[in-house]
Specification:
2 copies of one chain form a homodimer.
Chain A (H helix, E strand, L loop, with lengths): L22 E5 L6 H13 L4 E5 L8 H7 L5 E5 L14 H21 L4 E5 L1 H6 L5 H10 L5 E5 L5 H6 L2 E9 L15
Parallel strand pairs in A: 1-5, 1-6, 2-3, 2-4, 4-5
Helix pairs in contact in A: 3-5
Chain lengths: 193, 193
Amino acid sequence: MIKRGTKPEQIDRLEPKVRQGLTLVITGHGKGKTTSALGMALRACGHGMKVFIIQFMKGDIYAGEWDGIKQMNCDIELVATGKGFCGIQGNPYPWSEHRANAQDAIDLAGEKIVAGCCDLLILDEINNALQLKLVDLDQVLGLLRNKPPLLHLILTGRDAHPQIIELADTVSEVREIKHAYRQEIEPQPGIDF
Amino acid sequence: MIKRGTKPEQIDRLEPKVRQGLTLVITGHGKGKTTSALGMALRACGHGMKVFIIQFMKGDIYAGEWDGIKQMNCDIELVATGKGFCGIQGNPYPWSEHRANAQDAIDLAGEKIVAGCCDLLILDEINNALQLKLVDLDQVLGLLRNKPPLLHLILTGRDAHPQIIELADTVSEVREIKHAYRQEIEPQPGIDF
């Protein structure tokens, strides 16, 4: 397919001398937090790693990744535990129901960590769940502190708590420069959900 | 799996009244640009969409997504066209070789756009390639202007050009708050490559 250019003479394979499980936080108000975590899931699958994804709050609106995950021939599982974004217009569920669901999600995360579920555990929207008091700071910090040394943990969602940022190895803030919805473009499948 | 919480009463499926192909730019110096694009690829696959990924510059160091893509039971293809990051320490290839490869990559992108290759076309690291003059601004703007109305186009890489940002619908800047490599943690498989 490359016509004028040529292939590199060799393809290197990086192999860290020290394997280390990282804690990553993807926060900010721009588009690309959940998708960044999903991209790492895909990358991890390529390395033969085992992936478990827990979506906090999400679960009431279909998202393409639910079926995308099923189409992957690797050890990857996704559980959407929520009832939508607590408090936003149109969401019919009281805070207490959102809290009950998020509490189950964090219990599940704790069980998965203890059981050595996987090489990569993604806690999608957990930062949001914390800000809405659906989970408690001590619960999240407990997960980070009890993480096995080789497990990679990714926490996504807006407004990550400073103490979580403090404990993390890599933190990115996704800033919105522009967003299609501000031009009244509706959410598009494959991109926005 | 949910014990105390309950499932939402119904799961809604968003369906935009108007389908529109978006141009997205994921830029900035933080971690999570390529992975965000890959996550949208996974999401798009869940919707049964066809995906084509062209990696500019990348191709000399194995990346997990090369095999991750192959494990997906959907219409997705990835071509890594490059010889590494031009100009960085240890890269043995002269600028002219990087340019030849990037020129092939942009020709390929043009062909794919004309041929109606896919629903989502990802041009990974094209912003970097532009900044290093491996491709020309007019070439990239030409792709954006010739894009079929329903095609989603994602451009990743640092330092996106202002004229590209101007034409895009959604632009996110991924800022580095912390990065593991600053604590001398080596790149880890599944996360960093």
